[in-house]
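Quick one:
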Amino acid sequence: MASGRSVVPEELKSIQTYLIRANEIQGKSPLISYFCRAHAVECGIALMQKGQLKDEASKKYLIDLMNQLEKVLLKHCYKFEWFRTKSFFLL
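Output:
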């Protein structure tokens, strides 16, 4: 997963804390790990919208992370009870 890379691009250092935590708890709580990575992506997108991501490597890292999140969601969503309930989407 992109978040497992040892080197986060300099422009994305602000999201590194979330990615480290996601890796730490991946085995114990995959759902919380997913949300840590999702929050990192949201923060990265905010940086991109502010024009603070100028390096192509940073943009590629963020896109890779988004693609990995999408794969995890599609592969494991049946395990997460709240994904299966319509009430989650109505909140």
